[in-house]
Amino acid sequence: MRHISRRGLLGAGIGAAAAIGIAACGRQSGSTPRDSAPAGGKSGGDGSTKPPPRNEARLIGDGSTSDTGKQPHQPPAPVPLEPGETPPQFVVFSWDGAGEVGNGLFPRFLELAKDHDAAMTFFLSGLYLLPESKKTLYRPPNNAPGASDIGYLTDAHIKETLKNVRQAWLDGHEIGTHFNGHFCGGNGTVDRWTPQQWRSEIDQAVSFVTEWRTNTGWTDLDPLPFDYRKELVGARTPCLLGQERLLPTAAKLGWRYDASSPGGLQKWPDKIGDVWDFPLQSIPFPGHSFEVLSMDYNILANQSQNSTKGMPSRYPGWRQQATDAYLGGFHRAYESNRAPFFIGNHFEEWNGGIYMDAVEETLKRVADQKDVRLVSFRQFTDWLDVQDPAVLAKLRTLEVGQAPAGGWNSFFKAA
Q1: What local confidence, expressed as pLDDT, does residue 57 receive?
Q2: Residues in Cβ contact with 3 at an 8 Å cutoff, skipping those fewer than 6 apart
Q3: Mean pLDDT of 137-163
Q4: Which pLDDT tens digit goes with each residue over 371-388?
């Protein structure tokens, strides 16, 4: 049985009446045009969606992972904004947990991304590649060996998860981490972990991904086609907790970003130390005076009071409200300061699957609009890292919903 942990909080810019539940990512399920650079240009990928033959890949460790070369479907290197150029509208769809449990949501969104030349970020929970029979291998900080607030997948679902993670990377998506046991309450909660305990959790998450063959005994499945220790450059913490103590460890590991802050404003991001801070954002919530966090579970928390099985008669209205919330957040940025828009999701069928329908409709509605770039967090970080710091600092002066006075050319010329 899978358990869902939750935590309520008031995010920045959210009214006191809008206490929102931070989703625990039980079973779960981004983006740049596959043939476009974040700022325009043609892909350097070879179009391949299949791993190379095993004799062309360099197996790593026990053969759970392999080095197959450059990731397919990546854009060419990004370039700095030209003087007076309108910034792209970046949109990142991300997925917490990224396990496939037989509901078909992981492959559904891989196909959707392919149809719309989108890239996404999948924050993989390490335990989703560890058999329950081997659960005592997991030693979570301040919790009993093998403990997990999201349970473990069946062997069949681990195999499906491996299949979809493999395909996601081959399709050009990013594989990050959502760590392991997802502890959001009690003495073992992640927001009490020290930087050293976060390092232990990270090392274990990486080991479960890179040693699944040893832990499962399966030798007839293809390795994952990437070196996870090199690929892993960012994360989202369980329930968006514990970022402050995680960041020193993330910086030591050379991670480039963290996506764990709750209630961020729709403004251009900045770094905390050496790590880019990409918060989930407060967005307009139709029918209410307060704003809601840009994540499926937080919309659910305000619609059905944390119940994942609310009144079916209300599903159509809630589905439309969720869609309009996402689109409202998108248009507020797109038509003003062009701040990147971040949406968090889970591969879940909460309230009849309406949040999956809402995010699909949102992606379809924004994908073909001018200047829109559907990117992974890693690809967005690549773009940020080549921009003039003075230009980024100028962009950060624009408030939520504030368009540049006189247009972008005048804005960048202004002192």
Answers
A1: 87
A2: 26, 149, 150, 151
A3: 98
A4: 999 999 999 999 999 999
Length of the chain measured in residues: 415
Percent of the chain with pLDDT over 70: 86
Q: How far apart are CA 30 and CA 253, in angstroms?
A: 24
- Could you tell me the residue ranges of all domains in the chain? 7-413
Percent of the chain surpassing pLDDT 90: 84
Please count the other Cβ atoms lying within 10 Å of the Cβ belonging to residue 408.
Answer: 16
Domain 7-413 has CATH 3.20.20.370: yes
Q: For residue 322, count other CB atoms closer than 10 A to its CB.
A: 27
Lowest mean pLDDT among 34-38, 121-125, 143-147, 220-224: 34-38
CB-based contact 337:348 (threshold 8 Å)? no
pLDDT digits (tens, 9 = 90+) for 204-248: 999 999 999 999 999 999 999 999 999 999 999 999 999 999 999
Q: Which residues of 79-103 are buried (b: 16+ CB within 10 A; e: fewer)?
A: eebeeeebbbbbbbbbbbbbbbbeb
The pairing of beta strand 174-177 with beta strand 291-293: unpaired
Separation CA 312–CA 301 (nearest Å): 15
- pLDDT per residue as tens digits for the range 338-365: 999 999 999 999 999 999 999 999 999 9
